[in-house]
Amino acid sequence: MNHEKSEQLAPARPRRADARRNYDKLVEAAREAFAEGGADTSLEAVARRAGVGIATLYRNFPDRADLLEAVYLEEVEAFCDSAAELLDEPPWDALAEWLRRLTAYLLGKQALSPVLLSTLGHDAEVFQRSRAAFYAVGQPLLDRAQEAGVVRPDTDLAEILKLTGGIAKIPFESPAEIDHLLELALDGLRYRSPVPDA
């Protein structure tokens, strides 16, 4: 599988070991803080959570958008890298599991994505790079499943990503509802031989 997608996907990290540790602590603290309190959590709270001063935060991330982008891209990179775990799975199982993971990933982005969209715009480079990364790992999984004859040939990754993204945006009362709807969608992707005329 092509894993070019994550080369420098996230912003370049500092080279010095201590600066790199601070950078990583800030990104991790921001990820946790944004998940708990939303993307408008104060930067001072993020710095406190990371155990660094606010000046260190601003040295790494001059404004909120820079920090949001770093968190977003590092999570995209981690998600895409996880696809390597599926390479030894049968074609259908690999694709279905990737789409389950993608749905869960998208559900976790409900707070962060709208803020980035409103701050940077839909066509911002961060989103272009993310879309390219999803295609780079998802397309080989789909190709492999279609070549094995286990996924219907009349669809493509763009349609499947729209389907998965749509499911992630629907308000649900419980995770079981999401799982059920996703399984229905996956069932629709399976290839079935046409029933011969009686």
From TrEMBL:
Keywords for this protein: DNA-binding, Transcription, Transcription regulation
InterPro entries per the UniProt record, alphabetical: Homeodomain-like_sf (IPR009057), HTH-type_TetR-like_transc_reg (IPR050109), HTH_TetR (IPR001647), Tet_transcr_reg_TetR-rel_C_sf (IPR036271), TetR_SbtR-like_C (IPR049445)
Domain of life (superkingdom): Bacteria
GO molecular function: DNA-binding transcription factor activity; transcription cis-regulatory region binding
Transcription listed as a keyword: yes
Keyword Transcription annotated: yes
SUPFAM superfamilies, per database record: Homeodomain-like, Tetracyclin repressor-like, C-terminal domain
Protein name: TetR family transcriptional regulator
Organism of provenance: Aeromicrobium chenweiae
